[in-house]
Amino acid sequence: MKDTDIKRLLYTHLLCIFSIILSVFIPSLFLENFSILETHLTWLCVCSGFVTAVNLVLYLAVKPNTSSKRSSLSHKVTRFLKCCIYFLMSCFSFHVIFVLYGAPLIELALETFLFAVILSTFTTVPCLCLLGPNLKAWLRVFSRNGVTSIWENSLQMTTISSFVGAWLGALPIPLDWERPWQVWPISCTLGATFGYVAGLVVSPLWIYWNRKQLTYKNN
Amino acid sequence: MRLGSGTFATCCVAIEVLGIAVFLRGFFPAPVRSSARAEHGAEPPAPEPSAGASSNWTTLPSPLFSKVVIVLIDALRDDFVFGSKGVKFMPYTTYLVEKGASHSFVAEAKPPTVTMPRIKALMTGSLPGFVDVVRNLNSPALLEDSVIRQAKTAGKRIIFYGDETWVKLFPKHFAEYDGTTSFFVSDYTEVDNNVTRHLDKVLKRGDWDMLILHYLGLDHIGHISGPNSPLIGHKLSEMDSVLMKIHTSLQSKERETPLPNLLVLCGDHGMSETGSHGASSMEEVNTPLILISSAFERKPGDIRHPKHVQQTDVAATLAIALGLPIPKDSVGSLLFPVVEGRPMREQLRFLHLNTVQLSKLLQENVPSYEKDPGFEQFKMSERLHGNWIRLYLEEKHSEVLFNLGSKVLRQYLAALKTLSLSLSTQVAQYDMYSMMVGTVVVLEVLTLLLLSVPQALHRKAELEVPLSSPGFSLLFYLVILVLSAVHVIVCTSAESSCYFCGLSWLAAGGVMVLASALLCVIVSVLTNVLVGGNTSRKNPVHPSSRWSELDLLILLGTAGHVLSLGASSFVEEEHQTWYFLVNTLCLALSQETYRNYFLGDDSEPPCGLHVEQGLDGATPAWQDGSACDALERDKGHRSPSPSQVLRGHKKWMVLASPWLILACCRLLRSLNQTGVQWAHRPDLGHWLTSSDHKAELSVLAAISLLVVFVLVQRGCSSVSKAALALGLLGVYCYRAAIGSVQFPWRPDSQDISKGIIEARFVYIFVLGILFTGTKDLLKSQVIAADFKLKTVGLWEIHSGLVLLAALLFRPHNLPVLAFSLLIQTLMTKFIWKPLRHDAAEITVMHYWFGQAFFYFQGNSNNIATVDISAGFVGLDTYVEIPAVLLTAFGTYAGPVLWASHLVYFLSSETRSSSALSHACFCYALICSIPVSTYIVLVTSLRYHLFIWSVFSPKLLYEGMHLLITAAVCVFFTAMDQTRLTQS
């Protein structure tokens, strides 16, 4: 493992963070009365779109995985469709989990679903970009000692921190402060976003810090 | 002394119960109450004392004023009227205070400075405590004697406009009222306009005797923007104009009536520098009190500075002013300037009435009342008064008479002051000494429990309790000496009454011996641990098992829950905490099952994949099914894992069971909305109980009872199976008899009885099943080898409790029971048995589910949600002991059923002989951690705004829960003992 790799990782992560920051500021140029809290759903869509776009661009530009040997067009198309299906499935399963956690079943369904979308954006989309629609690889990455590169290591960290952020984001909902951000699902989406950003920031640093100890099988 | 860890834990919990009891007694001081209830009608007023010839004045003095108007402005601080703000914004009031016919005072409110207790203090003259709230559990109406009640009895017409609290406190007392809610704090104009709009009409009419106006706007402004906001000035000007309007109207009316009118301006509590209230700072406690009447005329140049008085004095003064008997529980004294203008004889008469009332209250509440200086003064002034009356009746108008009279007067005033003071110190203060003693005992027990965790959870499940270690005997006696010295010092110096000091020396000494013995045990255990830690560090062979994610979740969850108890919202919404934790637990369990079933071993890359316990635990659970399956087929022939034994549908059940449980929890959650913030949301329970859906409710209840039968009968002997079936039928018949469900063949029967026969029929079966269970247990103890019999006996006891719960639960809650049994069955079959959790983990899971079910039943941390109807099932009239027991069981059915299932499950598992004692220890520990932390939190938050509304009810719930835990632990230990005698 080289320092250049870590540097590349850091730059890609910075780009991701930048895309989130942009998603806050750019829409206010085009839309009137745009703010994260009041037009939360718009922001969720925009943010999800931006992060997905950046991930895709990075995937095409950087290509940390050089595994795809067959690159026929039909293969690519099926791969892409598979990715879309996986993404939708993850959205729906997140939605179900949120409802099981106590989210209202009928009212606010759109809000809940968009929360599922943004959480999928932070977790499933990077997985799909990095590992492709290959569940075996996913399982390998998310198990103990199954990581084979710094990319996968950082993927693991950002995913977990997004989940933890969303989980922690639910805690302030019962408090009686009557703040606008306590409304479902704003605190959770913000928590997930902060968790994702924290994961993006921390993982390169952590990898840099532990670069001596980290050894990967394939590198 | 060697003790099994179960026995040890039970002893600890028992001691803890004692500590909590002392704490609660200190936290909720018994209120000063007159034993004569208000309903018993008016007793004749005390006659005028007289030496020699009897006095001719035995009736109640006639009223001093014809009409009384009380203007109560919420959160009116004293400097809003008497300070610079008053001069600037309330010119008319300032004029009245400085030059007009008025008397002004600074009335001191006692904490909690919250509106409802303060209204009670103003109108009853007593100091309301939390015990009052508990005493009139379901009726918010005031049961005590009050000025309003007396005025109503005397036939006065009372009109009220303002805060709704009054209407709730005094239902049917007002001839006319219009309540405004104080719910919308951000509104500060509309609430007051709602009051003022009635004024013109009412003042013109004049067909009333008492008019009460409660203005909320100022308080709302304080909450929004604090006492220095410009809005305050506007509001004060508005209030000033209201006051002027009332005053001029009263003055113009006065010409028609012989008696003058009285206008009272007061505040219920003040406002702190941040604009809130509830605590006991000077700004919150001091309120203005201005009495305005043409009777208080003064000469120019007569400067009256506002005197400091108590808020409770208002009730006595109002009663005298209206010619009513003083409320029986009043601890206040008459504001003397009000009667100053009257003839000497009347003045003395009023003071006498007041002192007689106070001394009666003192006699009823203080055992050694004769030694009280106030009482002595009262006796003396009564004698003097008698002499004066004799003189007065003999000759009139003399210098001597006047001088003697003023001497009696001074004597009376001194007596009043002392009496009032000694009565009000009885209440309104936390008895800190008792609280500290209780806290110390509880914390010592908790420390002991925590310190003995490694020893108690060791395989042998035994621990050394160094009770008789001679090395610490010196320490023991020293601690006893110190504690006794502290006790003597505190008890001799305390001005207020203290429960712990009031105990007999033997009892207090017992508690002190206990506390010091605990301290010594802690010290010796601590040294043992430190020494032992050193030795064990030398031989590092100690196999330390790795912490799984589940353990981490359990630890974090417990810590998080305990910490959340410090925030009032989290206490109100505690059910959310438990639902969240239980859901996360299910996800963690599902992750564990996936890992176990697809990978078999921990060291290999697990399939279930997530290190954290969050929302994510099961993300890939559905996506990964096929891949994991493939992975497993790959490895199938290579690594035979325990999961290989399970095949086919059983495996899928194992994988699906956490999700089934999650779905059950979600359904139950929407059955009863509880808490505060979302309690008004529509829920299934309300839908079912509405009369239109009786058929649905009947079907649901029947299905639930059927499920209960199917799930319970499999472990029972045939006799109890039959008893259970009949019992459950009886439950349905009982519900049909009282009219909450219906039979299909009698869809609209109207005859509704109390269902006494049906309920007693069920009780017989409950007792029968419990008896069979106990018999089996005893038999298993005699025939040592019969292990199966014991399991059956335990299950029978469990099913007896289930049957009792089925009887006590309301029909719409029967699904809770059915789901609880379903979840228990699923967990037992598919999670605990295959995954081989250890006893501690299983105990904590049972505890969490028990807590969640407590809230699924519709309980909350508010006293009002206790279902008292459970106490009347099968009883004709209210019989205290069975009613209390049944209500307690009905309320805590969730935790109790899960605990009894825990006992059964661990006894039926034969893998470890010490599982039961481990479980008992864990159960005791996990229950005592929140309660011990909570009493510390409550002590530090005792001046919090919500202490009476949120924290105190929760404290009662925690105390009750600890009592239940103690009972559960005793049951555990009994079961453990039978096991020991077997082996």
Automatic annotation (TrEMBL), chain A:
User: Where does the record say this protein resides?
Assistant: Endoplasmic reticulum membrane
Q: Please report the record's description of how this protein sits within the membrane.
A: Multi-pass membrane protein
Q: Which GO terms describe its biological process?
A: GPI anchor biosynthetic process
Does the entry feature the keyword Membrane, yes or no? Answer: yes
Q: Which UniProt keywords apply?
A: Endoplasmic reticulum, GPI-anchor biosynthesis, Membrane, Transmembrane, Transmembrane helix
Q: GO CC terms for this protein?
A: endoplasmic reticulum membrane
Main location (coarse class): endoplasmic reticulum
Q: InterPro entries this protein is in? A: GPI_biosynthesis_protein_Pig-F (IPR009580)
Q: In which pathway does it act?
A: Glycolipid biosynthesis; glycosylphosphatidylinositol-anchor biosynthesis
- Ranges annotated as spanning the membrane: 9-29, 41-62, 83-106, 112-133, 154-175, 181-209
- The protein here is known as Phosphatidylinositol glycan anchor biosynthesis class F
Native species of this protein?
Rhinopithecus roxellana (Golden snub-nosed monkey)
Automatic annotation (TrEMBL), chain B:
CDD domains from the UniProt entry: GPI_EPT_2
Q: Which GO terms describe its biological process?
A: GPI anchor biosynthetic process
Q: Does the keyword Endoplasmic reticulum apply?
A: yes
Per UniProt, the keywords (alphabetical) are: Endoplasmic reticulum, Glycoprotein, GPI-anchor biosynthesis, Membrane, Transferase, Transmembrane, Transmembrane helix
Q: Indicate the family of this protein.
A: Belongs to the PIGG/PIGN/PIGO family. PIGG subfamily.
Q: How does it sit in the membrane?
A: Multi-pass membrane protein
Q: Name one Pfam family in it.
A: Phosphodiest
Protein name listed in UniProt = Phosphatidylinositol glycan anchor biosynthesis class G (EMM blood group)
* The encoding gene: PIGG
Q: Where are the transmembrane segments?
A: 432-451, 472-490, 502-531, 552-571, 695-712, 724-743, 755-772, 792-809, 883-907, 919-943, 955-975
Q: Where in the cell is it found?
A: Endoplasmic reticulum membrane
Which InterPro entries did the record assign?
Alkaline_phosphatase_core_sf, Phosphodiest/P_Trfase, PIG-G_N, PIGG/GPI7, PIGG/GPI7_C
Question: Which pathway does it take part in?
Answer: Glycolipid biosynthesis; glycosylphosphatidylinositol-anchor biosynthesis
